[in-house]
Design brief:
CATH superfamily: Gamma-glutamyl cyclotransferase-like
Helix content: 10-25%
Shape: globular
Distance between the termini: 31 Å
Strand content: 35-45%
CATH architecture: Roll
Number of helices: 2
Low-confidence stretches: 1-6, 9-24, 136-150
CATH class: Alpha Beta
Mean pLDDT: 78
């Protein structure tokens, strides 16, 4: 990252003076807010075959639960007083499908659009939310192939 609020040499949000969230995406790229296992370079290597370009990001109104899914994997839950810390990641075309497989969508997680802060920029991106976030811990078996920590 060359400077705060910039990834891949382009601004995350064009200056419009209004602080409006942008749907801008680098050409042919997808942005993902990662707060858990996908932040780990070893997991990135196993899922994507490379380490991702990243920048620190914050998701207001959500809280990270360290062992929410299967008693072992992180998840986020709504909490109006909280801020989930993570990173904005750049994915290539087709890599979102790899993420869906890794996150066992729709059984364990669901993908949704959110607005995060990256530096002073507001950015629209994808995030994975536990499928049953309002029901407590989630039991499942879909992550063993690319498990966070075996």
């Amino acid at each position: 990252m060359e400077e705060e609020g910039r990834l891949w040499g382009a601004p995350l949000l064009a200056s419009n003076g209004g602080g409006v969230v942008s749907d801008w995406q680098p050409m042919g790229r997808v942005l993902l807010f990662a707060y858990g296992t996908l932040r780990d370079s070893g997991v990135q290597q196993r899922v994507f075959g490379r380490t991702l370009a990243t920048a620190p990001a914050r998701l207001s109104g959500w809280r990270v639960e360290a062992t929410m899914v299967r008693g072992r994997y992180p998840g986020i839950v709504r909490d109006p007083e909280a801020v989930a810390l993570g990173e904005l990641q750049e994915l290539r075309p087709g890599e979102l499908a790899k993420c869906d497989l890794y996150e066992d969508v729709p059984r364990l997680y669901r993908r949704r659009r959110v607005d995060v802060r990256c530096g002073r920029q507001a950015v629209r991106c994808w995030v994975y939310v536990p499928a049953n976030a309002n029901r407590g811990r989630i039991a499942g078996r879909g992550l063993s192939r690319l498990a966070w920590r075996e």
